């Protein structure tokens, strides 16, 4: 048997380059993006944006007592108009992806912020948000979306849904049609999709619709609210299941926030089938898509679509619902909760 020749030792140049790369990664701050929403209904100043804008261009420094993490955390924020079309345009770009939905469209809410936080309307993310916001070269390590939920406390969402969106957005537009009318997606966690027909009820739905159509318009509204499936994610999202789940330990995060006196805080599995839910699903799906489509970085276990290997660490995504101001949390309470969550997720403390 021929002797095995050991591999040549790395040159000093290669060793130095590897060391420099590792040092650069250690020195690079964690990059975090916080999004809040624009006006909706009679709410002109969205509490979610009141929190997010306070954290723009803020740097968090590691706590001094050992063991102390080495990397700082840099936070930026942007404003999302309450628009299905804008979500489909902006959120994929946040994750370094081109929009795939034919319904993607940039929107500007004239009632929203005018400092560039919702972009200029003419140019896509990130150029349309410059110079206020700069997209990090290596992408974001964490994206947290904030929205307004029920009063009574903060809710941290575990998952988001692909279909069932029946409410019009702030621009009076319905959600885009989902990819499987009269069907629902089985399974969860953003993998490949499968469908099951609702079949036996479709004929009954037709008879009920015909009967109600002979009555007043309010009866048709009743039918639409309770029986029509609503819109969702269609073209471009065929490979994603009906539920996408965050990889963040929401129960652990909630326990930490409660222990630190930030309550009432609870975990939730129902973001509400409106723009909050829609944005969360889009962000989770695009984070997974970016992980799968990338050809650089370290392989990550478990992140795949249809079995395709993951090639880069997946951007962590989370959605936090805050109540209206004073019900019971203030804007400052909300800001502190988000900061505590960021530190716990990225520093582990």
UniProtKB/TrEMBL annotation:
Organism domain of life: Eukaryota
Region spans: Disordered: 1-30, 92-130, 161-191
SUPFAM superfamilies: Pyrrolidone carboxyl peptidase (pyroglutamate aminopeptidase)
Basic and acidic residues composition-biased segments: 104-113, 161-182
Keyword Hydrolase: yes
Molecular function terms from GO: cysteine-type peptidase activity
GO BP: proteolysis
Keywords: Hydrolase, Protease, Thiol protease
InterPro entries: Peptidase_C15-like, Peptidase_C15-like_sf
Residue ranges with Low complexity bias: 10-22
Family assignment from sequence similarity: Belongs to the peptidase C15 family.
Name assigned to this protein: Peptidase C15, pyroglutamyl peptidase I-like protein
Organism: Pseudomicrostroma glucosiphilum
